[in-house]
Amino acid sequence: MIDLRGLWRGRERYTVFFSNHSDSEIAGLQAAWHADPERSARLHVVALAPGLQPGFHRIPQSDPRLTLTLLSAPIDAALAQLGAQPDAVFLDVVAGSDFARPLARIVAAGARLFAQSLNEEQRAALQAQGFVFEGEAGHAVFASRKPRLPVPPRPERRAIVLGAGLAGSSACASLCARGWDVTLVERHARPAMEASGNLAGIFMPLLSRDDNIPTRLTRAAYLYALRAWEQLGGIGAAIEGDACGVLQLARDAGHASASRAIAAEGRLPSEFARWLEPPEAEALLGLKAPDGGWLFPQGGWARPGSVCAALLDACGARLTRRFGVGSVQLERIDGEWLARGEDGGIVARAPAVVVANGVGARSLAQSAGLPLSSLRGQVTHLDSASLPALPLVLCREAYLTPAAGGIACAGATYDLDADPMLRAASQQENIDRLRSLVSDPAAAQGAPLAGRVGFRCVAPDRLPLVGRLPDFAAAGATERLRDVPRHPGLFALLGYASRGLIWAPLAAELLVAQLEGEPLPLETTLVDALDPARFVLRARRSSRMPQSATE
User: Fold this and answer.
1) In this protein, which residues make up the domain named FAD dependent oxidoreductase (predicted)?
2) CA 66 to chain centre
3) 3 state DSSP class of 458
4) 3-class DSSP state for residue 493?
């Protein structure tokens, strides 16, 4: 490994990109960084990695000053989607020369290139893009005069986080790990009192034949959540729950046929997802499974409140908690945001605010323009003695968890009203669905009305909102995401719908990477799909459509 000590010294952040690597190379680089007393404040390693599922894989590190992102894609495609400015690039055994242009578009000014196996065509392509080769055959510096994106300045690391559910707790943990001082503002007396307050949430990926944007985003979030929870202490230990697996039954013969086609492509590792034909599914479940189903062996259930507790405990002394403050409003004065309580008093102040309070965001002037909906969800709590014993989570249109403490959870409804009370009609809907799920019309017979009602925060496209909040009033004739005016220092983690358990860790990691100017844990296409400003552009397009087309 080439000695980078003279290059990273005195830097706030230093990013290294590998086109090929070994685990020992990365470990050696990190060890050299740790051993250097004059090292950069942060080191980011991005590397291509065979054998992983497609996309970006952020691997949590024990030292939050280090990040590791593995990319499973051809080099030219990976570079085109990389939200980073590498300071050092190691190229080894790269085919073709198509990588030269996307590499030149993203590297930092003065970036160093180290490559020992370039052919003449590749060397010429790199020179044409602004790389100047030096004495050693494979060493070059990027000396193009084309303007580079400015390096984001070091932020003042103080923030307010609104909301102490999964979104807000994850934000607090990621910010505090990067050295931020955070004030958590929650209207309730304790964390996880709203959508994150259910006894059990299930975690599982999403599959599709075309590997579309929701599928890719959910896969990345699911895999990152599994790694992040392990670092917190693990499901079943620090986090209440069980990684017992999830069996998603096929809805009908057509759904089973489509699932078989996905399975036949052979793209899915068996530890991630495995298609089970009816006999195998029934043998595993001990119940009827007439059309088979998908087994997600790493899936399971967790109590969201215990995840929130583990995340907040990890924050240490950098976190200040302000609970029971009721509703707040935001006001910006002299470069700082003030969170004011119902009596007008200042609850907290900081240069940055992360709005992570779910449907509560609709009551803030700065986020009221976002098209967020509140969907009522009633979960039914059932005595496990009234149900078949399950070895794993079972789901289809609804879900049923294995018993914990003698209670199984079934649900959840999707209602458009704002009734916060349990109601018999929703209970019966849940019970009818679980009876279909377990093929037993007598299941949960005579169950008393018990459970919980929560309200999901949902965007029209069912994707989260992660990033800087747009200023709707100042948007004007904006046509591109990058040109949408934003509220300074105001960010969103919203719209997690029914997937907050797995969305929260990766969304927080993405937001904090944006704040810190780090390599992003997702492809830029997926980052754009989560940008809250997408709704500014959609509103403009909608307003230009003929009236007949919008009716």
Assistant:
1) 159-513
2) 19
3) strand
4) strand
Q: How far is CA 460 from the centre of its chain?
A: 18
Closest of 340, 395, 333, 334 to residue 363, by C-alpha: 340
Is the CB of residue 440 less than 8 Å from the CB of residue 388? Answer: yes
**Homologous superfamily assigned to 5-142:** Vaccinia Virus protein VP39 (3.40.50.150)
276: enclosing H helix or E strand? strand 274-276
pLDDT band at 462 (very low <50, low <70, confident <90, very high): very high
List helix spans (H) across 243-347. 253-264, 278-285, 304-313
Q: How far is CA 454 from CA 6, 307, 356, 358, in A?
A: 55, 17, 16, 11
Residue 412 CA to residue 434 CA, distance in Å, equals 10
Asked if pLDDT for residue 549 goes beyond 50, the answer is no
- Residue 125 per-residue DSSP state: H
Where is 547: in which H helix or E strand? helix 547-550
How far apart are alpha carbons 464 and 6 in whole angstroms? 41
Write down the pLDDT at residue 95.
83
pTM of the model: 0.94
Q: Summarize pLDDT for 337-351 with one digit per residue, the tens.
A: 999 999 999 999 999
* Residue 93 confidence (pLDDT): 75
Instruction: Pick one of 3.30.2010.10, 3.30.930.10, 3.40.309.10, 3.50.50.60 as the CATH number of 159-195+306-372+459-544.
Output: 3.50.50.60
Residue 135, pLDDT score: 75
In whole angstroms, give the CA distance from residue 110 to residue 75.
21
Rounded CA-CA distance 440/434 in Å is: 8
pLDDT of residue 286: 93
pLDDT at 2: 82
pLDDT tens for 148-183 read 666 667 789 999 999 999 999 999 999 999 999 999
| CA–CA separation, 301 and 322 (whole Å) | 29
Tell me the three-class secondary structure of 392-405, residue by residue: CEEECCCEECCCEC
Distance CA 434, CA 446 (A): 14
Residue 538: pLDDT band with limits 50, 70, 90: confident
Predicted pLDDT at 547? 46
| Residue 550: per-residue pLDDT | 38
The rounded Cα 227 to chain-centroid distance in angstroms is 12
The two structure tokens encoding residue 365: 């002037």
pLDDT in tens, 304-315: 999 999 999 999
Region of poorest pLDDT, from 32-46, 87-101, 441-455, 533-547 = 533-547
pLDDT at residue 548, rounded to an integer = 41
For residue 40, give every residue at least 6 positions away whose Cβ sits within 8 Å of its Cβ, in sequence order, or none.
8, 9, 10, 11, 12, 13, 14, 33
407's tokens: 């209670």
Angle between helices 304-313 and 166-177 (to 10 degrees): 20
CB-based contact 464:495 (threshold 8 Å): yes
Query: For the sheet containing 329-333, what is the strand order?
Result: 329-333, 336-340, 346-350
**Cα radius of gyration (the chain):** 25
Sign for the CA dihedral angle at 341, 344, 348, 349 comes to positive
Domain ranges of the chain: 5-142, 159-195+306-372+459-544, 380-456
